From TrEMBL:
CDD domains tied to this protein: LuxR_C_like, REC_NarL-like
Keyword terms, alphabetized: DNA-binding, Phosphoprotein, Transcription, Transcription regulation
UniProt cross-references to InterPro entries, sorted A to Z: CheY-like_superfamily, NreC/VraR/RcsB-like_REC, Sig_transdc_resp-reg_receiver, Tscrpt_reg_LuxR_C, WalR-like
Protein name per its UniProtKB record: DNA-binding response regulator
Organism: Arthrobacter oryzae
Amino acid sequence: MIAWEDTGHPATGGAPADLRVYILDDHELVRRGLQELLEGEGFVVVGSSGSAVEATRRIPALHPHVCVLDARLPDGTGIEVCRDVRSVDPSLNCIILTSFDDEQALRGAVLAGARGYVLKEIGGTDLIGALRCAAAGESLFADDVAAGIVGRLVDEDEVDPRTSNLTPQERKVLEFVGEGLTNRQIAAEMFLAEKTVKNYVSSLLAKLGFERRTQAAVFITAPAGADIPGLADPVRRPGVR
C-alpha cells in the first residue's frame, strides 16, 4: 500500500506560501491535533468538521489549497467528499487520511481524483511535505500504482459483457451482492455510505431488469445463458428483451 514515504516525491516549492487547509475527521482530538500541527508550520486552517455532509457543503465555498479528508465517517466517506467537491471545483486538491491499509480505499481515492492516500501513522514532517506537494497539484501516488488501478478497470470492463451497461462502481457492488454481502458490509468494503450502496443496488437492478437483489446475485454467479429457477427468463443480458 502506498504511504507518503513510499512515493519518493520530495517536498515541493510550488505550494502557496500561506497554504489554506480544510480538515475533515469525526474525532475532535484528531482535528485539534492536526490544526495545531499545521498552524505551527504556518498553514492556515480555514475550516474543519466531523461530518461529510457539512464538509461537502463548506469546502467549495472556502476553496482551500488542500483538503485532509478522513476515509471513514459516520455519515459517509472522505472519498465521497473528494469526488463530490471536485465535481463542483476540479481544482480542489484532496488527501485521504486513513487508519486502514486497504486496496479498495486506495482504488477509490485514485478514481475520486485525490492527490494521495496516506495512513494516519504518518509522521508530522512527512504529512507536511505531502500537503505541500498536494497543494502544488502533485500526485502522491507512485505512477505504477495509479496506472495499475486504471489498467485493472480496463481489464474488468473486458471480463464480463453482461454488465457492460453498469458503471464500474455498480459492477463492484454487483460482485459483492453475488457474494451475499449486505448493504452495510458492502459500504464498509468500498468506503461508501450505506445509503450510497443502496442507491447503487437500486440502479443496477433497474439496468439489469430485476426486481430483487437475489435475482442479481444469481445473475452474476451463473454461467451466461443459464436457465435459473425463479427467474422469468434465462439469465438476461443488458439490452436483451
